[in-house]
Amino acid sequence: MSQYESGLDAHAQRPKKLIFAPGDIEVGAETPGTATPPSQMPPAAPSYLSHAEVLRSETSTPDSTTESQILSNPARAHQFLTNPPLTVSQLHGTNPLHQFHTWFRDPRLPASSAPETCTLATAELPSGRISARAVYLKELDERGWVVYSNWGSREGKGGQVFGRQAAGGDIPGPIPDPDDETQSVPGAGNKWAALTFTWSTTERQVRVEGMLEPLRREESELYWRTRERGSQIGAWASWQSRVLWSAEPPLLAERQRRMSVAKLQASAGSVPGAHVPADIDATDIDDGRALLEQRVKEMEERFAGVEKIPLPPFWGGVRLVPESVEFWQGRRSRLHDRFRYHWNGQYPTRHREEKPTMASPTTQTPATASWVVIALASGAFAALNGLFAKLTTDTHTTAFAQSIAHLFGLESSSFLELLVRGICLGLNVLCNIIMWALFTRALTAGPSTVKVSITNTSSNFLMTALLGMVIFQESVGGLWWLGAAMMGAGCILVGMREGA
């Protein structure tokens, strides 16, 4: 069993963590908040971004004049030039979790850009309505991606995923215990979800699709203890996705009127003749914020003498166990690279995806046997190319022309010899064209350039020697056999390295 497979144990108590991000810390005298020292500031944004902002702000409804400005705007020159081509040989051979870890630790992703920010999408059953929200990745272990939140609300993602009803009244329901099989009710929720990471700095994106599973309480406790006290109080006070306030259009119109009056009062001294009705209260209407702050005060009083605030039963972590993981990297002319790992029941497999369109689905690369055959054929035609090139100038061509003349009862002549040499030259050019066409096709279908090149060279090496022995009666010595053995060993070693 591989390291990855052992990490997928259904009852693994503590999966190996690749990423663990502590919770919020309290800002104090020695904690400079979110300020970043000048020496640690990320590099300035590319110049095309400022042009892109102008492009977005000035092109709502372009006319004949602005249309030409749009077409010549420098923002259109951005063609995804940050990265070199992405090939399968650059990806981890078997584990997309480790490949994600490599991209996540890219030094071009400064901490200030919050690379842990991702979008979690869930869907409600039976309606199929999808909702998405930004969350923070807090852990990455050998089983999947972990995020923390309030999951007790039946109106929000908790109800979509776990199908849990509230415990009673206004109290959020608890997160299901993964070890309690009695809580696993078929059809009670939709645990299928998706995470999307977008890193514009490195022109990369990662899409994860799979099923959510709740963390055990002791696992969530580890992260809960890293959060500052105010965040813990807030988790108890905020019953996520519950409606605190709602308003009908007349109330919103009243709010707008009060805001207008407040502006008039603020400028009454400078606007001659401004009239403010005496019965108008300039303060804004209540929007539910006061209720939330009141809950915070209640929780502060409740836990006033408690040193360690307990973990709420409705709050904790969930792990997205992947069924497929797609790695996307930008390329020039928007011919982007997209590789997807997909689980076939035992281990993940990889394939390159074409740029998606509305008309046709994504396709997989040809099977391994296909590119091997193409690469071998390319090497064989390379050997034939060399053979006909040699026949174009070699003395064997003269004997070959005489044999053809004798076969058809003709007299040997220089014209016939020249004709045979011309035919060999044409075959030389044809084999060269076929060789390059097959080699290019093998590079497109193959798992890596190295594998295709070595397979092609091995075929060329062996076929050239065999053709030399058959047609030109050339002999090969011990060094040739040694070279053939080394070539075969090299193919095996490269294959083992690529599969690791």
TrEMBL record:
Enzyme Commission number(s) from the entry: 1.4.3.5
Top EC group: oxidoreductase
Keyword field contains Membrane: yes
Membrane topology: Multi-pass membrane protein
Keyword tags: Endoplasmic reticulum, Flavoprotein, FMN, Membrane, Oxidoreductase, Transmembrane, Transmembrane helix
Subcellular location: Endoplasmic reticulum membrane
Disordered: annotated span: 23-47
Protein name stated in the entry: pyridoxal 5'-phosphate synthase
Domain of life: Eukaryota
Primary localization: endoplasmic reticulum
InterPro entries cross-referenced by the UniProt entry: EmrE-like, Pyridox_Oxase, Pyridox_Oxase_CS, Pyridoxamine_oxidase_dimer_C, Split_barrel_FMN-bd
Cofactor(s) the record lists: FMN
Pathway: Cofactor metabolism; pyridoxal 5'-phosphate salvage; pyridoxal 5'-phosphate from pyridoxamine 5'-phosphate: step 1/1; Cofactor metabolism; pyridoxal 5'-phosphate salvage; pyridoxal 5'-phosphate from pyridoxine 5'-phosphate: step 1/1
Chain ranges of the Pyridoxine 5'-phosphate oxidase dimerisation C-terminal domain: 315-345
Provenance organism: Penicillium canariense
Any one GO biological process: pyridoxine biosynthetic process
GO MF: FMN binding; pyridoxamine phosphate oxidase activity
Annotated transmembrane regions: 418-440, 452-472
